[in-house]
Automatic annotation (TrEMBL):
SUPFAM superfamilies attached to this UniProt entry: S-adenosyl-L-methionine-dependent methyltransferases
Entry keyword Transferase: yes
Domain PABS: 111-351
Listed InterPro entries: PABS (IPR030374), PABS_CS (IPR030373), SAM-dependent_MTases_sf (IPR029063), Spermidine_synt_N (IPR035246), Spermidine_synt_N_sf (IPR037163), Spermine_synthase_animal (IPR015576), SpmSyn_N (IPR040900)
Protein name in UniProt: Spermine synthase
Assigned protein family: Belongs to the spermidine/spermine synthase family.
Example GO molecular function: spermine synthase activity
Top-level taxonomy: Eukaryota, Metazoa, Chordata, Craniata, Vertebrata
Alphabetized UniProt keyword annotations: Acetylation, Phosphoprotein, Polyamine biosynthesis, Transferase
Biological source species: Alligator sinensis
Catalyzed reactions: S-adenosyl 3-(methylsulfanyl)propylamine + spermidine = spermine + S-methyl-5'-thioadenosine + H(+)
Pathway named in the protein's UniProt entry: Amine and polyamine biosynthesis; spermine biosynthesis; spermine from spermidine: step 1/1
GO biological-process terms attached to the record: spermine biosynthetic process
Top-rank taxon, per record: Eukaryota
Keyword Acetylation annotated: yes
Length: 356
């Protein structure tokens, strides 16, 4: 980036010899008020684009078909030459030079996953340990050097073995006494919540997870998260139901069954800001209403929200809390979940105490 308006023709002429030395074929497009676009192609399949803007921005993209170190070294060599030449041409007038890491496309291991607020993150993933398609979603478990195994459901990073902070937050951040309590977990197929609550000597924990393949994968490859609780679907103080949670909630509500805690680990608050049009919002509202019906008067409902940057979606969620069949109050907490690489909002909801 130059500090002043660029002489587009001078930049082009100054950089052309670098590409010509690589025996690349040049094609130039020019616009009277918008600078130049030059493309350079090579017989080995590599190519470059050079974009020169009148306001001073010069961008260069290089793509190589080869993934070997020799090909990368050659690209680095070209980029070094371009930087050196730009400094020669515009001594003292270069405001900033920024070189981004290479993006590897079409690799056997996908390292690129978006954050909730739309930023692209490259993970240090080195192995695909589990990849299955169920009737409900694609399930991947990928190994990261930093975060351990990461559960990814239909392209969304769900939980890594490093993410105990997530599990603790959705359980109340250590402020709750689960001893002798009745607990209902909605979702939670990775087993993390179940594993941590069982340690706290509850009376009974019921976990309702729709996807057996999530449990199968996590039981084998996420044991740092779930321990041994997924080895059996029933234990001394817990049971796992492989069912859709909505019919289960309706059944429990009809039976008058009540829980001290309901933990919703099904889905994050939708990013869409049209609650009337998005079916995920409708699903979320239904879960909220049914959960309140099976929650004791002094019970608590825990759930994740979404990324702290999605303020509009979070505000809409809080508005939905005011539309339930019974009045509720809520609090929220912001937690850093390591593998998410963004701050995450968690909610505690409880029925409003009525004045006597």
């Amino acid at each position: 980036m130059l500090q002043q308006h660029a002489d587009c023709n001078a930049v082009l002429k100054g950089l052309q010899p670098i590409f010509q030395q690589q025996r690349m074929t040049e094609t130039i497009h020019s616009w009277e008020d918008h600078g130049y676009l030059a493309t350079y192609t090579n017989k080995n399949g590599s190519f470059a684009t050079l974009r020169i803007y009148p306001h001073g921005l010069v961008s260069v993209d290089l793509q190589s078909y080869n993934d070997d170190m020799k090909g990368r070294d050659k690209i680095d060599h070209i980029l070094n030459k371009i930087e050196e030449r730009m400094k020669e041409l515009f001594q003292g007038s270069i405001k900033r030079v920024k070189r981004l890491p290479a993006i590897v496309r079409g690799d056997a291991i996908d390292r690129y996953w978006p954050t909730a607020d739309g930023r692209l993150v490259e993970y240090d993933i080195d192995e695909v340990v589990y990849d299955e398609d169920s009737s409900f979603q694609n399930i991947k478990i990928l190994h990261s050097k930093q975060f351990g195994n990461i559960l990814i459901l239909s392209g969304d990073v769900n939980l890594a073995e490093s993410d105990l902070a997530y599990t603790k937050a959705i359980m109340g951040s250590g402020k709750e006494d689960y001893t002798g309590k009745e607990v209902l977990i909605l979702g939670g197929g990775d087993g993390g919540i179940l594993y941590e609550i069982v340690k706290l000597k509850p009376k009974m924990v019921t976990m309702v997870e729709i996807d057996q393949l999530v449990i199968d994968g996590c039981r084998k490859y996420m044991r740092k998260t779930c321990g041994d609780v997924l080895d059996n679907l029933k234990g001394e103080c817990y049971q796992v139901l492989i069912e859709d949670c909505i019919p289960v909630l309706k059944r429990y509500a009809k039976e008058g069954r009540k829980f001290d805690y309901v933990i919703n680990d099904l889905t994050a608050v939708p990013i869409s800001t049209s609650p009337e049009e998005d079916s995920t919002w409708e699903f979320l509202r239904l879960i909220l209403d049914l959960s309140m019906k099976v929650l004791k008067q002094d019970g608590k409902y825990f759930t994740q929200g979404n990324c702290i940057n999605l303020t509009e979606a979070l505000t809409l969620y809080e508005e939905q809390l005011g539309k339930l069949y019974c009045p509720v109050e809520f609090s929220k907490e912001v937690v850093c979940v390591p593998s998410y690489m963004e701050l995450w909002v968690f909610y505690t909801v409880w029925k409003k105490r009525t004045e006597i």
